[in-house]
Amino acid sequence: MTVSGSRIALVTGANKGIGRAIAHRLGELGLCVYLGARDEGRGREAEHEMRAEGLDVRFICLDVTDESCVSLAAKRIEDEAGHLDALVNNAGVGAPAAPPSRTPVAEVRRTYETNVFGVISVTNAMLPLLRRSRSARIVNVSSVLGSITHAASQDDPTGVFPKGVFPTLLDYNTSKAALNAITVTYANELREERILVNAASPGFVATDINGHQGHLTPEQGARIPVWLATLGDDGPTAAFLGEDGSPTGQQLSW
Ligand SMILES: NC(=O)c1ccc[n+]([C@@H]2O[C@H](COP(=O)([O-])OP(=O)(O)OC[C@H]3O[C@@H](n4cnc5c(N)ncnc54)[C@H](OP(=O)(O)O)[C@@H]3O)[C@@H](O)[C@H]2O)c1
């Protein structure tokens, strides 16, 4: 099914949670959205629901840890759309909470495969398509838990954790810190090409990743990623913005 005339987006890990809400909102805004999911059944179900609302949302099989799957996804988008305007690297995992001293290195590796290496793999595969857009945007869905500054001061600017208490999730926090560094590194490479690359912290959202303990809805968590995916040409690059209820979010420290 070829695409003509629309802006094209790809959202990874979009079958549920925040990614699903990002895909839905981008569809509502009139974009043609490739809904990335590693499981066909879950992906097709999300696609079906959104298409029933009249949105141009297309399931695309995408396990971000599988390079051949990532290449096939890029080839399909190239064949159908010819380019990509917005890439939202949303897919993410976390290991069960344990202190760093009791976290098996295998758990850290597993989390990095998705949260770090998966982002690099998808970004590099999609960059040739993004370079064909006149206003390409890359959004990395990060977390305030990836902020080394806030971890060091044990001061959570979002107010979820009291002062002096900052979660010590070795795999998750450090994977998001790496993702933040990756965001700035790509932003600097792509600055001259006017490809804007930013990180978003969606806030504490009730989803499977945290056993639905968050206080925000996936739709609220999707707000800043969607804003960054649809930025005007005068928008920021190399920014780290977090949900705080304001239109453009709060600037977080790296
Ligand atoms: N919820 C929060 O409070 C919060 C706060 C800060 C940041 N975040 C970030 O927000 C993003 C979305 O998380 P969420 O809260 O919406 O969690 P979620 O409901 O657990 O969704 C995670 C999504 O990532 C997908 N995924 C995991 N590994 C994948 C892989 N290898 N390839 C492709 N997709 C994969 C999952 O697919 P399956 O269904 O197949 O597992 C699912 O669609 C993550 O990057 C997370 O770190 C969340």
How would you explain this protein's 3D organization?
The protein has helices at 17-28, 40-52, 67-80, 105-130, 148-153, 170-190, 218-229, and strands at 8-11, 32-37, 57-61, 86-89, 137-141, 196-201, 240-242, 250-251. The termini are far apart. The chain has a single domain, classed as Rossmann fold (3-Layer(aba) Sandwich). Helix 1 crosses helix 7, helix 3 (67-80) packs parallel to helix 4 and helix 4 packs parallel to helix 6 (170-190). 41% of the residues lie in helices and 14% in strands. The protein is an alpha/beta fold. The structure holds NADP nicotinamide-adenine-dinucleotide phosphate. NADP nicotinamide-adenine-dinucleotide phosphate is lined by residues 12-13, 15-19, 38-39, 42, 62-65, 90-93, 114, 118, 141, 143, 201-202, 204-205, 207-210, 214.
Major sheet: size, sense and barrel closure? 8 strands, mixed
Assigned CATH architecture = 3-Layer(aba) Sandwich
Structural class: alpha/beta
Which series of helices and strands comes N to C? EHEHEHEHEHHEHEE
- Note the gap between the termini: 41 Å
Helix segment tally: 7
Q: Name the beta content range.
A: 5-15%
The level-1 CATH class: Alpha Beta
Order of strands side by side in the largest beta sheet? 3-2-1-4-5-6-7-8
Number of domains: 1
How much helical structure, as a percent, in the residues? Answer: 40-55%
Number of extended strands: 8
Q: CATH superfamily name?
A: NAD(P)-binding Rossmann-like Domain
- Overall mean pLDDT: 97
Which geometry do the CA atoms define?
globular
